[in-house]
Specification:
By secondary structure, the protein is an alpha+beta fold. It has one domain: Alpha-Beta Plaits (2-Layer Sandwich). The chain contains two helices and four strands. Strand 2 and strand 3 form a beta hairpin. The longest helix has 11 residues. The radius of gyration is 12 Å and the shape is globular.
Length: 78
Amino acid sequence: MRQYMVIERFRDGCYDAVYARFHAQGRLLPEGLTYINSWVNREANICFQLMETKDPSLFDIWFTRWEDLVEFEFYPID
């Protein structure tokens, strides 16, 4: 397993919609992509998430489920 730092930037005006979807449907992670922890910045427009997976292609599936509300970056942690 490898860990990744995911940076989510909420699209303008989408903070409430992000959390409404999250509370209704969860993180919408594909099987094999594991959430470890997260932190939101003070301005509540960026979320940093620590994730783990053997298959980084799973990020594409996850990002597609949220791309209408969030812009993503992710970086492997060595």
